Amino acid sequence: MKILIINGPNLNLLGKRETQVYGNQSFEEYFEGLKQYFSIHEIGYFQTNVEGEIINRLHSAMTEYDAVVLNPGGYAHTSVAIRDAIAAITIPVVEVHISNVYSREEFRKNMLTAAVSKGCVTGFGLKGYSLAIQSLIS
What we know:
Layout: E1 2-7, H1 19-22, H2 27-37, E2 42-47, H3 51-64, E3 67-71, H4 80-88, E4 93-97, E5 119-122, H5 127-137
Helix pairs in contact: 3-4
């Protein structure tokens, strides 16, 4: 199976930003181990801080991948456009959030993108990506 991981805004700062919430490992370090663990599958990775680039990558993923694991970051709570892009594509999207959004600020509990995703994994740290992939390949 071919799976694309898309990380949204500020996730390029993992390991440096709010380590008490997001941990001290960079995503690139984690991603290397993830690829080894799921070595019989092809896993791609894309990160951007730009909303339109997430939308474009979701659109193009339909012709290149079987599924997407998406961490839209803060856009989960604000982006109707990303929500509509998820709804428009024909491959499954599993949403991931590193922190437990339901134990944080009130505004984080409203996730526009989760409503159109196949599922949502929240609060398990970086392991959430592995859980999302497991759900897609099962």
